[in-house]
Write a structure and sequence with these properties.
single chain, alpha+beta, five-stranded mixed beta sheet, 10 strands, about 25% strand, elongated, Cupredoxin, respiratory chain, translocase, metal-binding
């Protein structure tokens, strides 16, 4: 989760988020190089004494400043397109979970198991444990196995919501009357926090998401206890 004075991206907990962080760094480096070049050229314009009142064209420099930006855009576009296709790819999921957005809480269903569904509300401040996180903790966490491909189906019952967990690289809209899907893969255990990132009404700020990643054998035992 994000912490105080953290200007970087959150630590990734999935391969997709790692790729997103790499693409961010790659693009940021290109932006810094362009900024330094343009800044240097602007600085030299203030100090040089070069004048040529008969200059009408410069085909060589025009070719250069047309081709170089095009090559730069290719270096940004190719990794971006690769990443877009990776984000949409859903390959042989182990578990399917359904998330339903309401004003202003989430409902979850484990579609592969019988009668496993629950609502998830934000924990009120006066009920929060000492080590809890204000506006991020919930009364019923999503519990999922690590090192497993998870598919999530997202919809809403009233207005637009958006199911977003930054450390997993997941952001998908919850639209009434429409079922969207995406997938993610958690490569380590832990607690991963997210929030609704679509302005959905007065209590939009109070729709947190908490995912607890646990080993597969513990998850199987948990599901058995839920069904009993």
């Amino acid at each position: 989760m994000a912490t105080w004075s953290n200007l970087n991206l959150q630590d990734s907990a999935s391969p997709l988020m790692e790729q997103l962080a790499f693409f961010h760094d790659h693009t940021l480096l290109i932006i810094i190089m362009i900024t330094m070049l343009v800044g240097y050229l602007m600085a030299t314009l203030f100090s040089n004494k070069f004048t040529n009142r008969l200059l009408l064209e410069g085909q060589t420099i025009e070719i250069i400043w047309t081709i170089l930006p095009a090559i730069t855009l290719v270096f940004i576009a190719l990794p971006s397109l690769r990443l877009l296709y990776l984000l949409d790819e859903i390959s042989d999921p182990s578990i399917t979970m359904k998330s339903i957005g309401h004003q202003w809480y989430w409902s979850y269903e484990y579609s592969d198991f019988f009668n496993v569904e629950f609502d998830s509300y934000m924990t009120p401040y006066h009920e929060m444990p000492k080590n809890g996180f204000r506006l991020l903790d919930v009364d019923n966490r999503i519990v999922l196995p690590m090192l497993s491909q998870i598919r999530i189906l997202v919809t809403a019952t009233d207005v637009l919501h958006s199911w977003t967990v930054p450390s997993l690289g997941v952001k998908i809209d919850a639209t009434p009357g429409r079922l969207n899907q995406t997938s993610f893969f958690m490569n380590r255990p832990g607690l991963f926090y997210g929030q609704c990132s679509e302005i959905c009404g007065a209590n939009h700020s109070f729709m947190p998401i908490t995912i607890e990643s646990i080993p597969s054998n513990m998850f199987i035992n948990l599901i058995k206890n839920m069904n009993n």
